[in-house]
Amino acid sequence: MICTSDIMTKSIQLRTKLGEDANSPIDIFALAQDIEQLTIVYYPMGENLSGICLKGAAGNNVISINSSMTVGRQRFSLAHELYHLYFDKNMTAVCAQKIGVGQETEKEADLFASYFLMPAAALQTKVEMLKAKNDSNDLSIYDVIRLEQYFQVSHQAAVIRLRQDKLLNADAADAMISKGVRRLAESIGYSTELYKPLPVEKQYMTYGNYIDQAEQVLKRGLVSDGKYEELLLTAFRSDLVYGDNEEGEEIID
Ligand SMILES: [Zn+2]
User: Fold this and answer.
1) Helix, strand or coil for residue 14?
2) Which residues, 6 or more positions from 197, have their beta carbon under 8 angstroms from its beta carbon?
3) 245 pLDDT exceeds 70?
4) Cα gap 155→124, rounded to integer Å
5) 3-state DSSP: the chain helix, strand, coil percent, rounded to 5?
6) Ligand 1 geometric centre to CA of 130 (Å)
7) Average pLDDT, integer, range 12-38
8) 76, burial (CB in 10 Å: exposed 0-12, middle 13-18, buried 19+)
9) How far apart are CA 61 and CA 68, in angstroms?
C-alpha cells in the first residue's frame, strides 16, 4: 500500500538535502550533476524504458535516462530515478516508460517524481491563481499547459497529477491526457522544447562522476592519454576528445 504523505515527505526531504527550497521549480538536470559519486548517462533506449538506476558497491552510482523521450518526460524520469537512488533498498532498477504502472516501488517512484517536481503546496497555489484569473472553477487545457511549463514536466505527468489531486475531474483528464499540446503551447507564447527530445546528435551524453574519475586517473598517471580518450569516447564524450565542433571562440560572459 503506497503512503502518499510518506512520499510527499520524502520529496521535501530530498529537496532540502540537495539544497532546494520546498516549493520552487527545479532545474533537475543541473541538480543531479552536483550529486557526488553519481554518473548520469543519456542515450536512446527505445520505446519501453524510461531509465535505469544502478547502485555500485563502492558508492559509485549510475543513472541512465532514455534520451529519445521528450525533455519534459526526461525530467520526470530523472526525478523517478532519484527515488531509487535515495529511497529504494534494491541495488538495481529498470524502469518502464508508462507512468503509474508496474510494481509498488515503480508507482512510489512515479509519485515521488511528481511531488519532487510539482510540490503539493506550490501546485495548489498555482491552480488557485489560474482559477481566480479565469473566474472559473475548471482548469482549461491552456491552464494545464501553463502549469506543466511552470514546473517543466511532460503533459501526461501534469494531467495525471492534476487528476490524482482532484484538480481535474476524470472526464476532463481523459480528454486532455492524449492531446498533442505543442501547437497550443506555442500559440500562447511558450517554447516547445519541453515537448520534444533533443536532436539525435545530442541524445548521447555522460556527465558527472565517470568523467571526473577519468580525468583523475589520467592526472595520476594511472592511464595513458590514449586510454583516457578511449574512456571518454566510450562515454559518448567525443566533444572532450576532438572538440565540440562549434564554431568560434568561447564567449566569456
Ligand atoms: Zn523505477
Assistant:
1) helix
2) 67, 68, 69, 70, 71, 74, 203
3) no
4) 17
5) 55, 10, 35
6) 32
7) 95
8) buried
9) 22
Q: Which three cell numbers stand for residue 40?
A: 548520469
Q: Report the pLDDT value the prediction gives residue 201, as an integer from 0 to 100.
A: 87
Distance 106 CA to ligand 1 centre (A): 5
Q: Choose among 210, 231, 147, 181: nearest CA to 70.
A: 181
> 107 alpha carbon to ligand 1 midpoint, in Å?
8
Residue 51 CA to ligand 1 centre (angstroms): 7
The answer on pLDDT for 226 being more than 70 is: yes
DSSP character at residue 100: T
Give, in order, the Cα–Cα distances in Å from 17 to each of 14, 30, 148: 5, 15, 25
Place 90 in a pLDDT band, splitting at 50, 70 and 90: very high
For residue 86, give every residue at least 6 positions away whose Cβ sits within 8 Å of its Cβ, in sequence order, or none. 10, 14, 17
Q: Which residues have a beta carbon within 5 Å of ligand 1, which is an ion?
A: 93, 95, 106, 109
- The single-letter DSSP state of residue 198 is P
How far is ligand 1, taken at its centre, from the CA of residue 219, in Å? 36
Burial 174-207 (b: 16+ CB within 10 A, else e): eebbeeebeebbeeeebeeebbebbeeeebbbbb
CB atoms within 10 A of CB 223: 16
Contact between residue 116 and residue 11 where contact means Cβ atoms under 8 Å apart:
yes
Instruction: Evaluate if residue 16 carries a pLDDT over 80.
Output: yes
- What is the distance in A from the centroid of ligand 1 to the CA of 95? 4
